[in-house]
Amino acid sequence: SIIDTRGIENECTEFDLHYLHYCMSLQMLIYDFHGNTNKLEIYRDVVDATLWMFSKEALITVIRGCWILYEKPTFQGQKYVLEEGERMLTDILNLHREKAQGNFTIGSIRHIMKDCSIPEIELCSHNSTDHFPIFMQTGIANLDELEVENPIISVKAGVWLAYSDTNYKGEKTVLEENQSPCKLSATDVKSFRPLKMGGLKVQMPMNTMMIIYERPHFGGWCKNLSENTDCIPILLENSDAFQGIGSIRVIGGIWVAYNKERYKGRQYLLEEGEYEHWQSWGGVSSDLLSVRFLQANFMESEVTLFETDEENGKVLDVINQDIPDLELAGFGLVTRSVVVKSGVWVAYQQKYFCGEQYILEKGKYKCFLDWGGTSETIMSIRPIKLEPLGDHQPIHWIKAFDNIHFQGSCIDFTTEAADFTSFIPCSFKVLRGCWLLYYQGKAAVEQCVLEEDLYPDLASCGCSATKVKSLKPVEHVFAEPLISLFALENCEGKELHLQEATSSVLNKEFHFLTQSIWVKSGIWIAYEGCNFLGKQFLLEPSKISNWTQFSGWKTIGSLRPIKQPAMYFRIKNRSQEKYLTVAGSLMDGRATSVCLFPQNGKNTQIWHYSHGLIKSKVNDACLDVIGGRDIPGAKVALWAEHGKPRQKWTHNKDGTITSYLSDQLVLDIKGGDYYDKNHIIVNQLNINELTQKWNFEIL
């Protein structure tokens, strides 16, 4: 269940027609208050939060923006700064969880950052007028290096943290814009840094739903939208009375709004969250006439910018990275064409993600007209990234509707369901994981595989019936697909070895009549017809000695591996209850190690699986057996992706993680009594060794 703080307090956003800042929707979640597993969603300032009681297990997740918790109501008392990420409330309040007694309260909550404007701070000497002021836009780890005596500090833009020790350690002081300049003692402040907003995010890309309102602050008439809408006014009974949109709530998905019909005109990206008025989405007015949602691989994004049409012209390749200043990155002010290789990117007319926005999806944009621009100027660019849902969400999740096109009543399923007598599903949104849909065929119960996608009717599912019998989640698998088809029974005779989709095994190239199957790894979907049409069958790792007897089909027409669901996870060792963690300098791969560490709520413990690679969310590097040595004791660290066998892994059902170098080499902890006892190695497989067993905790 959800407790909602919408309507507690409204605060307008600063707006400048000449220099548009993209203002993100703010969001903070608090789990487990008063001993329950409910969640509290906070979108704006809370003047008095003392009515909420939290247990010592309360977890705070900041999804967007930077916030301050105050000890007392009306933003008074001790301050606790929260940046994007996940932390236990007891850690934030500096309480020892074991000694903490009873419940806790928070006085008030305030957001302190809502856009990506350039931070700036001014330092000048208090004792002398001979020194010119120093302006800083980045942090400094040691204030003494500036050699400014008794500095007076003034925040020109953004929010800054001043620390009592060097290297951003010690007691913290919050310095905000528009505060009076303050004198800093060299003994009190040794370092400072600006707070920064995170990038563009989406948590539930398949849960496409938004609510548009007539007036600001969610007043007047409202309309629910689940599908692309090329003309909003026609949704109203009296379209002539349409005066624009006053406010928006994006329940799920990532959307683009346009100020003209049929997806034309100025573009506005809408993340999940709330937009109280047209200024909060960066608009120039309340005119929004069409909207559509975006679908892509939001985990891995790649784009190439071309400065000219010449073959030897300047080119910039960007992978999973925000570029606030393309000129500083070595690219020019002119972008002639763009090729998006994966993901969705947002380009901006000005630096630091300001000015007009251009949504770039997979494909080629030959000139600025293709992306909706008025010139070839692009000065900053960044991808939309998938954000982990957290620890308290189901790992399988499907929404079923009793009418087509996601209309009518809706029921959420997170486990197997077999009773559809009173509720008859007609359309589905598969939010998490893959599902098996069973329906009554002409002679037997048939099945369809539903991957993470939108299914507006049963035909789009591949279901030929009108009534669903049951739904069943498909177990998550972290292994590359591998299957062998055999021309004889009992996995004998001619063998067809496949690792990727095949649109026809009956064509002239193969003309293969499948009699038996060995699914060696991964999960596959078999189709009775060619081109992935006809009846379906889910194939999990096993041997099928007689395909016709098993399935009722004469042969297989086509087959493909199931799509790897988009998800992040933590990797926990069963022996120590600690997590696989990236340690060391993230900027220098040679100074990075992989070790075990207690849960810290940071991206250093978050991973995802792609084509056999276990990749870190913090820097996109992969688990790698250093030197590629297939011997027990070889060190495992992070390295840039190259795709060789030493970077590839399989997570087995028994909990072991096997290296592609050898099926007898598995991930293990080094052990011993030295400093590197918690570092990770590959070791000889020992099925009784608990240090070799790992759980993937899906977020």
From TrEMBL:
Gene3D superfamilies linked to this entry: 2.80.10.50, Crystallins
GO biological process: lens development in camera-type eye; visual perception
Gene Ontology molecular functions: carbohydrate binding; structural constituent of eye lens
Keywords, ordered alphabetically: Lectin, Phosphoprotein, Repeat
Keyword Coiled coil listed: no
Beta/gamma crystallin 'Greek key' domain boundaries: 65-113, 158-196, 208-252, 253-295, 343-385, 522-563
Organism of origin: Micrurus corallinus (Brazilian coral snake)
PANTHER family per record: BETA/GAMMA CRYSTALLIN, VERY LARGE A-KINASE ANCHOR PROTEIN
Lineage: Eukaryota, Metazoa, Chordata, Craniata, Vertebrata
The family this protein is said to belong to: Belongs to the beta/gamma-crystallin family.
SMART domains in the cross-refs: RICIN, XTALbg
SUPFAM superfamilies on file: gamma-Crystallin-like, Ricin B-like lectins
Record bears the keyword Chaperone: no
Superkingdom classification of source: Eukaryota
Designated name of the protein: Beta/gamma crystallin 'Greek key' domain-containing protein
